[in-house]
Amino acid sequence: MNQQRTSALTKSEFLVLRAYARAAGLLAQAMAQAQVLTQRDIAVDTGLSLGTVSSACKSLAASGLVHEGRITDQGIQALEPYRVHNAIIMAAGLSSRFAPVSYEKPKGLLNVRGEVLIERQINQLHEVGITDIVVVVGYKKEYFFYLEEQFGARIVVNSEFASRNNNSTLMRVVEDLGNTYICSSDNYFTENPFQTYMYKAAYSAEYSQGPSKEWCLTIGAKDRITAVTVGGQDAWYMIGPAYFDQEFSARFASILKAEYDNPRTFDMLWEQLYLEHIDQLDMEICRFAPGVINEFDSIDELKEFDPLFLENLDSDIFDNIVAVLGCEKSDIHDVYPLKKGLTNLSCHFRTKDGEYVYRHPGVGTEEMINRSAEVEAQQVAKSLGIDDTFIFENPQRGWKISRFIPNARQLDPHDPVQLRRAMETARSLHSQDARVSRSFDFYQEGKSYEALLRKNGPIDVPGYQEMATDAQTVRAFAQRDGFATCLTHNDFFDLNLLLDEEDKLYLIDWEYAGMSDAASDFGTFVVTCQLSDDEAYRALEYYYGRTPTDTEVRHNYAYVGLAGWCWYVWALQKESCGDYVGEWLYIYYNYAKTYLAKALELYRKAEGVK
After folding, report:
1. Which of 115, 254, 258, 472 is at 20 to 30 A from 349, Cα to Cα?
2. 101 to each of 188, 348, 403, how far by Cα in Å?
3. SS3 annotation, 516-569
4. DSSP states of 119-183 as a string?
5. What are the tens digits of pLDDT across the range 90-125?
6. DSSP characters for 212-252?
7. Which tens digits make up the pLDDT trace of 126-144?
8. d(CA 480, CA 60)
9. pTM for the complete prediction?
10. Could you give the angle at which helices 533-544 and 550-576 cross, rounded to 10 degrees?
């Protein structure tokens, strides 16, 4: 893999010699039977002018690399330093833009025009003699394992796929970079784009007539890529596979290793890292005709390319939609992901009868959420007119269909007018004579998450046990206050409070709802909306419609601390299952620590304890 070029060919010599090699079937023993190419044949194959081909043929003949219109054994050897040694197929990503199909299987395993995307790509690599193929997997990794046995591919697992961008995929295989194709598992090539030999590092590109939102290239001398802009006009743009030669690989690997631990690189594509160092990394354009390389950014795009895609799709999700709404698969369009929640995944879709939301339960939620209780609470909320978007939920599997609210906006908890409205909504809910069978208690809920967390081993997080003890103490104080229970939402915060075009407010997502202390919703709201101390106190004033008593203040602050602690343990459990919750882990921790301490101080002060 480390063979170096001894006598370099010019670009035109290389292209002509490669054309002769293809005519020979790429095998030296086939030289005698090789097709004799005319210079016109070569010009058509390479895109070079007849004059350039003629000059290259004379040079190659003089060097003994071509004889009487056929490549020689010496010519085959001259191409050897340019041989592509391997391919890396990136298949670790979530493909979130392809929701909800990607909730069930990785995008690279979709069947398009009768072929599985990654299988078609592997076969095309095999066709040109590239059999050393590494597939880097992450999301639903087990779905790709069969490629090892069926196609001889090597599987490498990227455990950082959820917390980093695709530079982490190349880091996992950095020692494999040489003369290497870098591919994405979800591309479809109408013609085989791969070559047995490549002249130098290159990125595939197609031409956009008119404006484009793609990564558009500026091309310098000798076809070198000198700059890239996001968006452009009448330009070549990056699409499809890239090729690293050994020189590019060595330099890129050095840069990747040097910058990998810098937090700013976590969200970077490998292409962005390349662009930051474009002066050091020599890469040229590899032009393709329009339509050869196909990347699909949405289900609608894929349906346009393969009109029978949905009809042939083996998908429980689309079967669920059809069964509930009574539509045909072909009626479903305008499918796109909505903002990912911390618990679930959701996507928008449209049929001829309207717009809807499909909610898909997140990783590990089957152990953490009582879906039957959610269905009961959702039906009560609908009957009360608090959330009439609800259509159907499967209590066994947790998927749900709701009506979509067009042009909805989230409530702004930091705007005093909207904060007042949120608190008045909570007060209205708590005053309803409505009951559900489920009870909800933040402390018990947190302990249930703790039990799940302990299944993975001891909880050795510094300060965890001390915080858990404080939560238990605060809960005991709060219970002695004697506040009544009522129907509470328990996930009451800005993401679940939507305003439509007519300013009607909806309180959605009732999966944690139950009979609880009314302060549960206040606690959740303060934590998840990240209210300041002043905002939290003002919210209490809005909730009660007056100045709260000292008892009401400490009681509600206790529930801020308990909510923070519960969701902190929840976040630890989610991350133990490989689901990245990001900054929320610290947010929950910080509110738990701060408000448990506030509540303890207020309770002990009330009892005359220092």
Report:
1. 115
2. 17, 12, 20
3. EECHHHHHHHHHHCCCCHHHHHHHHHHHHCCCCCHHHHHHHHHHHHHHHHHHHH
4. HHHHHHHHHTT---EEEEEBTBGGGGTHHHHHH-PEEEE-TTTTTS-THHHHHHTGGG-SSEEEE
5. 999 988 888 888 888 999 999 999 999 999 999 999
6. EEEEEEEE-GGGBEEEEEEEEEEEEEEEEEEEE-HHHHHHH
7. 999 999 999 999 999 999 9
8. 94
9. 0.76
10. 120
- State the residue for tokens 């343990």: 569
* Distant-in-sequence, close-in-space partners of 536: CB < 8 Å, separation ≥ 6: 526, 557, 560
CA–CA separation, 340 vs 338, rounded Å? 6
pLDDT tens digits, residue range 534-550? 999 999 999 999 999 99
Position 160, amino acid = E
List CB contacts of 337: < 8 A, sequence separation 6 or more: 96, 97, 98, 99, 100, 345, 346, 347, 348
Cβ–Cβ < 8 Å for 135, 147:
yes
Can you tell me the distance from the alpha carbon of 352 to that of 333, in angstroms, rounded to the nearest whole number?
A: 9
Q: Which two tokens stand for residue 323?
A: 């069964």
Nearest alpha-carbon partner for 106 in 120, 119, 96, 121: 96
